[in-house]
Amino acid sequence: MAEPVFRAVRSDDTEHDITEGELYRYTRHRWLYNEAYHLSQRYLKFNLQELLKAASIAIDVKGFVRCTKILKCKEGLNNKVFLLTMTNGIEICAKLPHPGAGPSFYTTASEVATHHFLRDVLNISTPRIIAWSADRNNPVGAEYILEEKAQGEQLGKLWQDWHEWPMRARAGVIEQVVQMEHILASTKFAKSGSIYFREDIAGSDPLAVISPMDSTVLERFTIGPLVEHRLWRGERAVMDLNRGPYNDAHELVEAIAMNEKKYISLYAHSRMNYARSVTGYEQPKDAIDLLDRYLQLTPAMVPPKHEADIHSATLWHPDLHLNNVFVDPKSKRINQVIDWQSAAVLPFFHQCRVPPMFRHPRPIDDDLNTLQKRPGNYKDLNQDEKKQIDILIASEGIHKYYLGTTHNQNQRHWVALQLKDDLRTQPAHIVPNIWEESNVFYLRRALLRIVGAWEDLCLDRGPCPVTFTDEELAQHAQEAENMEAVSGVLTLFRDRWGLPPDGSVESAGYEEVKAELSQMREAFIEAADNEEDKFLAEKLWPYQDTDERPKRETSHRGLYKEFKYDIRGKVSEFEAELEFFSGGGKLIWFKR
């Protein structure tokens, strides 16, 4: 019997032959730092023949159907996805979570139950699941989901074609997404957590909602622990932590801090934080002390009640980007929305956002009726410069049209979106993995803002229970100067060359990007005017293998997935930008 053909999709959507070994390895990206770790979190060896057998039985109980082609789809960071072509012409999508995607069993069990809830209860179209296993001890040797191939074309393949997809067509897609979000926002749950089938969570109660809904359709579902990977990272996977269900927003806000305190007290060790000091170590007790202050300030971290009810727990798509939406290219209608892995039921204000597929990469002003104008010298620019300006203006228009449509058609989401940058909601997003992600500074900054606004946030609670000493404030200000400067350089990398904070680069351009970045690093260090500043610049350089350096993260997950990584010939421009940042080549921002 002939073996199936092994193929993979390139970044330009063409196909090429691969070996069986490449099915198990992550090959779409490489990393500019900590590459071995990133790749290990995405390597998955499984029994291929058993997976194909499961697919055959799923569509033909006698198992007579065989697989003729295995197409490795473009890899996401959390899953391997294969399109299996069978002898009867049927195409099956096989999805296997990477080791770092989330907790074993729970991640897959929750994703499957969430799919069924969306299809069967809310009538939101997702691909039909035909077989699955959340037990990695199965014959395949890995958790898997087999589902029908999504109907239509990925929107990401079509969105760049302005001839076929003018603004009118894009507006139609925006309106359809807002309609789907309105369905989600209209379903309010009694508790926060992840959705499961009741048989998968021992002793669980039927799913409870506070929206009008037939209780009989809810009996097969329940709310169980969150599968968000940060709650299970590293040693947390075997710790007894409170991952839900949570009865209300206050319980959630407190639980995530208690979880981090428990983890840090057991597993964190002192380390260098050069943005804070070039001589002293950052101690775990510093983070624990900050979390204790956080817990004292939690009354200010839940927004006041509103008639739109932004507190009730709500199911939301975790990463709605262009490639997760499948459309009919002719009718421009959305057929299906995919990738609900790790979708959670959380207080609405805690997780609502503008979807990455519509998000403008720059700040948006409050006036939704006007757009940025072309510059006065527009007619003198070359075609590439004009195109870039027009793309940015169109991107702003898409973002604003989404906001305007949400304002008109989904008022609950609109009200919640007004809290996007609210100082009350920021700390709870920073706390998970605060030590590993070197976010102690960012949490301290968020708490200082709450302390400064305590009387306005908590009118009936008396004096603020938390204070910071003058010494703490001075040291924080010193660290802030260094962090702000390095963040400026990282923003430069992001805006000018598309490099995300995790250092991931399309594999085809890795060596070229790495060489260019090496030259940038030299320019960055040489811009310092003395050996001490050069030492500090070297330690603060973001893209390097070391556990000591402060890691930079972004809260806009998925924002850079559509960007292309191209920094060819940019070193001289980088040096010019350094001149601007540093005031004549001296890194005046570094403070010791």
TrEMBL record:
Which PANTHER family does the record cross-reference, listed alphabetically?
ALTERED INHERITANCE OF MITOCHONDRIA PROTEIN 9, MITOCHONDRIAL, AMINOGLYCOSIDE PHOSPHOTRANSFERASE DOMAIN-CONTAINING PROTEIN
The reply to whether Ligase figures as a keyword in the UniProt entry is no
The name under which this protein is listed is: Putative phosphotransferase enzyme family protein
Highest taxon, organism lineage: Eukaryota
Which SUPFAM superfamilies does the record associate with it? Protein kinase-like (PK-like)
Q: What is the lineage of its organism?
A: Eukaryota, Fungi, Dikarya, Ascomycota, Pezizomycotina
Annotated Gene Ontology cellular components are: mitochondrion
Q: Which GO terms describe its molecular function?
A: transferase activity
What keywords are annotated for this sequence in UniProt?
Transferase
- Record organism: Phaeomoniella chlamydospora (Phaeoacremonium chlamydosporum)
